[in-house]
Design a protein that fits this description.
single chain; 169 residues; mainly alpha; two-stranded antiparallel ribbon; 8 helices; binds zinc ion
Length: 169
């Protein structure tokens, strides 16, 4: 029987293990490992891959890390991506193009600023996607996950909207 604990950042119930984590999307090792399994499922089968655009943004925004440029850039890009996907129903290809543009703008004009992460980054986590037993469940959980993360960042929605406007003017 494996021991469980909670990720300090997303609060998912995770295996209590030692191991590596991402360089700036800081998490407990079990959370990073669990997310790694979610990703490998998505890379191995097209039916799972449909959820990929959501899982990447959701995980990043649940693990904002510390106030440093890599985190500021990452959170900026992923929150803008959530705004485009959920508020503007943008197509995946459109989102990719705009993300590129936002990233360039941020490099040349420091578009993004550090946003104080919300107390809770949402009730749903990678754990829910990880526990899914079919591609359909996986995709549904990913959508619930991304919606709950976006809602958790609600106090910063106007700032995100402003970034998009500045980048697309
Ligand atoms: Zn986590």
């Amino acid at each position: 029987m494996e021991d469980y604990t909670y990720c300090f950042s997303c609060r998912a119930e995770i295996p209590k293990i030692e191991g590596e984590t991402h360089l700036y999307m800081l998490s407990s090792p079990g959370s990073w490992a669990m997310y790694g399994e979610v990703l490998s499922r998505e890379y191995s089968e097209a039916l799972y891959f449909r959820a990929h655009q959501f899982t990447v943004d959701a995980y990043a925004c649940q693990h904002p890390g510390k106030k440093e440029w890599r985190s500021i850039n990452s959170i900026g890009i992923h929150l803008c991506s959530l705004y485009l996907l959920l508020e503007q129903q943008a197509e995946h290809q459109q989102t990719i193009a705009l993300r590129q543009r936002l990233s360039e703008q941020n490099r040349s004009h420091a578009l993004f600023e550090w946003l104080e992460p919300p107390e809770s980054t949402g009730e749903i986590s990678a754990e829910h996607v990880w526990k899914a037993e079919s591609p359909q469940e996986h995709c549904e959980a990913a959508l619930r996950w991304v919606r709950s993360v976006w809602k958790a960042w609600e106090p910063h929605h106007p700032t995100v909207e402003r970034w998009i406007q500045r980048a697309t003017d």
